[in-house]
Amino acid sequence: MAKVLYSVTMSIDGFITGPDGDMQWMRPFLGPNQEVTDLIPRIGSVLAGRRSHDGDDPHKGDAGEGKAFGGGWDGPLFVLTHRPPATPSEVTYVDQFAKALAMAKEAAGDKYVNVIGADVAKQCIEAGELDEVLVLFAPVLLGDGTRLFDHPGGRTVVLDRLSVTENPMATNLWFRVRR
């Protein structure tokens, strides 16, 4: 049965994008990361939000532009949106969260559904469907942007640390969501 994983690169001050969705801040930190290399074959599908899918790409101008993990991963991609495009594509656009997650889980089989996007991750948390979180801490302060998790008024989500690994470009912390 698929597990739902939110994997994300984050600044030390808690932002996953810079102001206005800027992802170019991430380019200096896209170097080799063995944990990500080991994770990629364990991903069975990707569930992304529309803003994340259509937004700025840290691989802009590179061969992997527009592809998950800079082209390092290939497989079923589900995009959660209220505005599916009229023209068909290799991406599956779904307008309901529960349906999108069910489709992504089925496609993943016994691998991970990798979540991309803070809003989709938040919906997974709210539905009690997020199993794990992998945060790649990049050594940079952004000061503004999209937070890893933002819940006005607060919401406590307890995480149990599974591992910590050091890489030249980031410090990786892997957590299990406590239920």
Plain-language structure description:
This protein is an alpha/beta fold and 179 residues long. The protein has one domain: 3-Layer(aba) Sandwich (Dihydrofolate Reductase, subunit A), CATH 3.40.430. 18% of the residues lie in helices and 31% in strands. The chain is built from four helices and ten strands. The chain has helices spanning 34-39, 50-54, 97-108, 118-126, and strands spanning 3-11, 15-17, 43-49, 77-80, 92-94, 112-116, 132-138, 146-147, 159-166, 171-177. An eight-stranded mixed β-sheet has the order 5-4-3-6-1-7-10-9. It has a two-stranded antiparallel ribbon with strand order 2-8. It is globular, with a radius of gyration of 15 Å. The two termini are 17 Å apart. The model has no long low-confidence stretch (mean pLDDT 92).
In brief, what are we looking at here?
The protein is an alpha/beta fold and 179 residues long. It has helices at 34-39, 50-54, 97-108, 118-126, and strands at 3-11, 15-17, 43-49, 77-80, 92-94, 112-116, 132-138, 146-147, 159-166, 171-177.
Strand content is 25-35%
- The end-to-end distance, rounded to whole angstroms, is 17 Å
CATH homologous superfamily caption = Dihydrofolate Reductase, subunit A
Q: Spans of 5+ residues with little confidence (pLDDT < 50)?
A: none
CATH class: Alpha Beta
Strands of the widest sheet, in order across it, are 5-4-3-6-1-7-10-9
The SS-based structural class is alpha/beta
Mean pLDDT: 92
From the alpha-carbon coordinates, what is the Rg to the nearest angstrom?
Answer: 15 Å
CATH architecture: 3-Layer(aba) Sandwich
Helix content: 10-25%
CATH topology: Dihydrofolate Reductase, subunit A
Biggest β-sheet description: 8 strands, mixed
Number of strand elements: 10
Instruction: Return the string of H and E elements.
Output: EEHEHEEHEHEEEE
Count every helix, treating DSSP H or I runs of 4 or more residues as helices.
Answer: 4
